[in-house]
TrEMBL record:
Residue intervals of the N-acetyltransferase domain: 6-167
Keyword Transferase belongs to the record: yes
Keyword Transferase recorded: yes
Protein name, entry field: N-acetyltransferase
Species in which this protein is naturally found: Furfurilactobacillus siliginis
Length: 176
C-alpha cells in the first residue's frame, strides 16, 4: 500500500469546507498568520462562491497543500492595487520544516510570472520569522521598508516589507 503524498495545487470551490476548517487552525498555531476577522461569519456557500470568483481572476490566486484529502497549508495571492498583489503562506505546525512553505511559494510565484497580469508581488514578514525571511530572500524578494505590524495575538512586532518584480511569459515568445 502506498503512503499519501502532498499535492500542491490550485484551490477549487470543492475546498471551501476544508478551508473554513484550516484557516482558524492556522491562526491558532502561529502568531505570524492572521485570517480575515469575519471568518466565523462566512458560510460554506459564500466560501465556495468566493473561491470560484478568486480562481477566475488574473490577479488573485490560492494554492493549497493537500495531504491525503486534508488541507495542511496554503499560499494566497490577493490584489492590493493595479498589477500588485500581496502573497502569504501558512502550513499547519505538524508539517513545518518539510519544505511545504517553499513549495507553496514557488508554485504561487510561478503562477504570478506565467499566468497572472501582475507586475509586482509584495509581502510583510515579521523579523522573528527567520526561516520565512531567508526563504523570501532566496526567492528574490528585496526589503523595501522596515515597519511594525500587529501579530495574531495583538502584539506589535518588528517586520519588513519585501517586494518581487514578476515578469510575464510572453505568449508571442512561446515555441510550440
Amino acid at each position: 500500500m502506498s503512503e499519501a503524498t502532498v499535492d500542491i495545487r490550485p484551490a477549487t470551490k470543492a475546498d471551501a469546507a476544508a478551508l473554513l476548517t484550516l484557516l482558524p487552525q492556522l491562526q491558532k498555531e502561529s502568531t505570524t498568520f492572521t485570517a480575515e476577522p469575519r471568518l466565523g461569519d462566512v458560510t460554506l456557500a459564500d466560501e465556495a462562491a468566493q473561491l470560484e470568483v478568486l480562481m477566475a481572476s488574473s490577479q488573485n490566486h490560492l494554492m493549497v497543500a493537500d495531504y491525503g484529502n486534508q488541507l495542511i497549508g496554503l499560499a494566497s495571492v490577493f490584489a492590493t492595487g493595479p498589477n500588485v498583489a500581496e502573497i502569504g503562506v501558512a502550513v499547519l505546525k505538524p508539517y513545518w520544516n518539510e519544505g511545504l512553505g517553499s513549495a507553496l511559494m514557488e508554485e504561487s510565484l510561478y503562477w504570478a510570472k506565467t499566468v497572472s497580469t501582475l507586475q509586482e508581488i509584495v509581502l510583510t514578514v515579521q523579523l522573528e520569522n527567520t526561516y520565512a525571511k531567508r526563504l523570501y530572500r532566496n526567492l528574490g524578494f528585496k526589503v523595501t521598508e522596515s515597519t511594525t505590524v500587529e501579530n495574531a495575538v495583538g502584539d506589535m512586532v518588528p517586520a519588513q516589507k519585501m517586494t518581487l518584480a514578476v515578469r510575464h511569459h510572453d505568449r508571442a515568445d512561446t515555441v510550440d
